[in-house]
Amino acid sequence: MDKNNCDIIRDLIPSYVDEICSQTTREWVEEHIQTCGECRLMAARCRDQALSAQKLERQSLDGLKKITDILKYQNMISYVLLLFVVFLGVLLFFVNRYSSLLRNQPGPLILCLTAAILFSMGRRGTAASGKQEYLLGGICLAIHVYFPSLFSFFLQELSVDAVTVFGIELHQIGPFMERQLIAAYFVQTAILVYSFYRIMHHDRNCHWLLCLNLTGIFLLFNYDVWLKHMDSFETLKSALFESTLLLMGIGLLATAASLAIPRLRRSRLQSRQ
Question: The whole model's pTM is what?
Fold first, then answer.
């Protein structure tokens, strides 16, 4: 076989494989590789490389599409959770209406915590939490402790027929507690928005803060419902104690799960490597 012809054909093989050469060139290359084993082998290798490159490109596009779908899914969960929490807060604190689901029922909280845990299974929130997240977590825990303690103190004082508590007359205790609950609701909602922002825009692992925060918000809802619809001080005391333990227990389990999921994901990735 003429070496000069082989050199020319080998220069044309990439264009032949990519199907960007003319029909005359294609026929000439095909006629040549039928009789030249070396050029035929080179054409086969080029074709395999082209197929591999196409496969890699397709896999990259599929991976990018999967990541995009996950991010859209996370955005949808965050918006739905925020709207649901804001809707319940407006309905309860400002419209003075409530659903029986909020009265000592863990269903709505479990639903929101499940959504938050599913949200944590995406690709966002891989960086460790910072000082700000731990500070906000401490604020959430402080609110968790503050209201049961405050309710317990008021109920204890009222049980001994106190005329005033902290200088507050009995008929003003309800509105006073209502204002406290509304203020705490705004704080908790602001922390919720901040947590979503840190996860989606700064890649922070704040999923545990979401669960802690959602638990606090539903505790506030529960306190307000019982405050407005109590039958007696003893009924309120037992109901608040039971519901606080129930909701806190569910919230702590979800918080622990949200802390464990990123660790399990990292260990699985390391085992694959």
Answer: 0.68
